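Notebook entry, cofactor series.
This is the third protein in the set we're modelling with a bound small molecule. For this one the ligand is zinc ion. I'm keeping the input format identical across the series so the outputs can be compared line by line later. Sequence and SMILES below, as received.
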Amino acid sequence: MTRKLTIAAMAVFLLLAMSISMVFATSEVSTGLAMVERGAYLRTEPKLNATRIQLVPKGETLVVLEQANQYWQKVQTQNGRIGYITTNPTYVKSIPSNVNATLQLERSLKRGDRGDDVVEVQMRLSKLGFYSGRVDGDFGPMTHRAVESFQREHRLVVDGVVGPQTTRKLNELLAGDAQSTVTTTAPATAPAPANNGTAPTSTGTEATPTGQASVTTKTLGKGTSWETEMYVIKGVKEGPTVMIVGGVHGNEPAGFRAARQVKDWKIENGTLIVIPDANKVGINNNRRNSSFGDLNRAFPQSNGANGSDALSRAIWAEYQNYKPQYVLDLHEGYDYNVQNKNSVGQTIIYHPSGQMQSFANKLTSELNKGLPASKRFNVLRNPVGGSLARAAGLHGSEAAIFETCTKDPINTRVQYQIKAVEMFFDHAGMKRQ
Ligand SMILES: [Zn+2]
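Returned structure with ligand:
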């Protein structure tokens, strides 16, 4: 009886909490810095039972990326980790500042400069996914590299100096961001699906009438620092579903360059899903990892499990949505595997399901025509645990990781990647137009 009463009291409390959060949620949209007053856990999702990423110690300054709801804010820690932390001022006190406000600098900022204006720039670069170092007002080498990546990405003069053009671009991007994040509020206590906050937003036509080809673009993680595009290309005829992924490692350009070409292909039959720049933050910074860590270790390692971070969960949700029979993940290694077993360059690493072994043999014998013995492609089996190919293979797809070697010229590597995708299409029975 008392147990029943307790449950009833809890239900009333939850309903009250929900209505309060709905009243106040929309007024909480602000971003800036926050000071940790008492140790608090950074979590993977905006809820108390979500996985803990780390304990953030007292005294640490956080960059607030987004107000998730009344109780949770999305933040970046000083070591570059992104997650959710409480808004309770006993634990985390907000330092009013608004990265969406127009930045007006009284001087150009460059390496070696210090000051509050550097803090403002670091916060904005963090929010946009270019900077994951300390927000300390010290314009050091990491800030310099972040500014260069930002300039490169936005086709500005790449000099690592924050002058009028770079400032204008920052303002332009964050002004648009302010408009698009206003609608991201939800009741804190509503039961959340496993991939809460990472559900993709469709921006194209969803349903395809039979007998009509179409291309649909979705943004995975829309509004986050790691958002990235997925393309769904449908042919006129029935056929296989094939998934091609590039850029899981941001410093392996041949994979994402090839995938960016593949996304523009037209097909006759089936459904082609392409995620060209899976780890966009890594690509923008020319580094292997995403803000969460190694995306190639983040996919589910057993049946029924989910990805270990928001990015892998967003991609995995699409895998589960489309259930592709064929998955190819495009990577690069630093050396030829045939010469150096420590690197997987010039290999195909297949998951031993379906006919993947015969595909791997066929692909490598084709690519090896005319190659000297010292550069031949090798066939390896069993992609690493936590990779997309391993997870897809475990769930019944024919899957592999294809690797070129960064010692070759970039154009050669992209050609190998394209050839691998073309032969994978043949293997799957997918025809290009
Ligand atoms: Zn890789």
